[in-house]
Every structure is written in structure tokens, then in C-alpha cells.
From TrEMBL:
The lineage of its organism: Bacteria, Bacillati, Bacillota, Negativicutes, Selenomonadales. PANTHER family: ADENYLYLSULFATE REDUCTASE, BETA SUBUNIT, FERREDOXIN III. InterPro entries: 4Fe4S_Fe-S-bd (IPR017896), 4Fe4S_Fe_S_CS (IPR017900), Fe-S_Ferredoxin (IPR050572). Residues 1-28, 29-61 form the 4Fe-4S ferredoxin-type domain. GO terms for molecular function: 4 iron, 4 sulfur cluster binding; metal ion binding. This is 4Fe-4S dicluster domain-containing protein. The keyword Iron applies.
Length: 251
């Protein structure tokens, strides 16, 4: 994003809306630091900021590689060209009763790396993907982050993107349930190497008796979960393809 220096009157209205403090007054004009800006679009969105002079505009090349990744991962109003999914993750990862992606005997993992104010560098993201790849993880095909990898088996991000930074990105995959403990152990180990924060979404089906099989594993590793659910009243059913391929999906 860029501020037209001719139009800007230095009112400062836009400054607090930037989640990474990329906008600052220099003299009597606001300027945007190109390296810090994550192209989240907050400052230009008219329903958020109303620049009295219409001085903020998109820089030419904002949608070109490699800077385009900042936009696709940081601005929820954009849609990824390949996955066709708006935002940084896959569709409905948290509504398994609709998507049926995670069946009994499996776990779904979504690691949300970075947050506004901190962001996440590709170096941090790659630390996670390379570490998890050592366990033989198969990353979710329909996730925009997977499409930035030069080597999906090793979790290596393509060289052209390595200098980029985004508000956040989600590492997503499904794994057999018996891999849950080694995965979480690895995530705890990797957490100590990061310069940002992350949250871990764990998607797991209930057993017939109402228990959640993941809870004892979390307790053993000293991880305190916050059980969360979205309820979709008749709005969807697990996709038939998942049911057929995976032999049914109770969620
Ligand atoms: S809101 Fe507009 S005029 Fe005011 S400081 Fe920001 S860019 Fe300049
Ligand atoms: S696009 Fe986002 S990160 Fe860049 S200056 Fe505007 S609010 Fe800040």
C-alpha cells in the first residue's frame, strides 16, 4: 500500500488501523514502510478507515509474485487463485460435520501461525512445515500455503517466497490418530524455535459413548485444550466422496 504524498494532510486517522505499525507520520505526511506493510488492506478499506483525502492506494505489482503472498495471506477479502478459497486456510476446516474431512481413527490439525501485530515470516512457517514433514505429514492439497512449497515432502518453501512475511498462515493436514502424540511432541519442540505465536486447532470425532479420544493424549503431554464446536443445524452433510473413500464419517 502507498500514500500519495500530494494528497495526504497528515491527519493520522489511518495510523492506528495498521496491525503492524507500518504507517507513521514523517514530518506532516503519513508514509507506509514497504518492508513492514503486509498488504492486509485495512488502511484502504473504506468501511474501516475513511481517509479524508483518498490518499491511500494499492501499489502496482501488489498481486504479482512474490509480494502477492502478503495480500493473499493477510487480506481476508482476497481469494487464492489456485485453491479458490478466500483467506489463509481451507474451507470449513472447523466444521467437520459439513466437510467430513476428518473421520474416526484420524485427527485433523490446523496450526495458525502468526497474528496481527506480530505476523509470521516464511522462515518461521518453514520451520514448522519442515519439522512436521520429518514425520511423513501430507499437507492439505487445498491450502494456499501448500502451493508455496517447492518440496511438499520436505515442507520446503520455494526460494522466491522466503523473504516474505504475512499476518498469518495455516498449516493443515490430516493424520492417523496414532500419530497424534508424535505430532504434538514435535510441535512443542518447534514452538521454542519460533519468533511468533501460533494456535493449534485439533479436529477429532467423538466416540459413540461421547468421549473424545484426543483428550487423554493432550493430558499426557500437559496441553490444556479449549473444547470448541460449531453447530450447523441441517445446513450440510459430510461430502459423499469422503464417506465412500473413508468408509463413513461420524462427527
Ligand atoms: S488518513 Fe489519509 S490524509 Fe490522514 S494521514 Fe492517513 S493517508 Fe494522510
Ligand atoms: S495494508 Fe495493512 S499492513 Fe499495509 S499499511 Fe495498510 S494496514 Fe498496514
Amino acid at each position: 500500500m502507498v500514500i500519495d504524498q500530494e494528497k495526504c494532510i497528515g491527519c493520522g486517522i489511518c495510523i492506528p488501523y495498521c496491525p503492524v505499525q507500518a504507517i507513521a507520520l514523517v514530518g506532516k505526511k503519513a508514509v507506509i514502510d514497504h518492508d513492514t506493510c503486509l498488504e492486509c488492506g485495512n488502511c484502504i478499506r473504506s468501511k474501516v478507515v475513511r481517509c479524508p483525502r483518498g490518499a491511500i492506494y494499492e501499489e502496482p505489482g501488489i498481486y504479482e509474485t512474490p509480494r502477492a503472498v502478503r495480500r493473499f495471506f493477510s487480506d481476508p477479502m482476497t481469494t487464492h487463485k489456485v485453491t479458490k478459497v478466500p483467506g489463509r486456510g481451507t474451507e470449513e476446516v472447523k466444521t467437520n460435520d459439513v466437510t467430513g474431512r476428518v473421520c474416526r481413527g484420524e485427527v485433523g490439525i490446523a496450526l495458525e501461525i502468526g497474528r496481527p501485530c506480530l505476523g509470521a515470516t516464511m522462515a518461521d512457517i518453514e520451520r514448522i512445515t519442515m519439522g512436521l514433514a520429518e514425520l511423513g505429514i501430507k499437507f492439505e492439497e487445498c491450502n494456499p500455503l501448500t502451493h508455496l512449497m517447492a518440496d511438499r515432502e520436505k515442507g520446503i518453501i520455494a526460494a522466491e517466497y522466503k523473504g516474505e512475511k504475512v499476518v498469518s498462515a495455516i498449516v493443515e493436514f490430516t493424520a492417523p490418530f496414532d500419530q497424534l502424540k508424535p505430532i504434538l511432541t514435535k510441535v512443542k519442540e518447534l514452538a521454542a524455535q519460533l519468533d511468533t505465536v501460533f494456535s493449534l486447532d485439533l479436529i477429532c470425532c467423538y466416540e459413540d459413548d461421547g468421549t473424545l479420544p484426543a483428550l487423554p493424549v493432550l493430558a499426557e503431554l500437559g496441553i490444556q485444550p479449549r473444547v470448541n464446536a460449531k453447530v450447523n443445524l441441517g445446513l450440510g452433510r459430510p461430502y459423499k466422496i469422503y464417506r465412500e473413500q473413508k468408509g463413513g464419517c461420524a462427527s
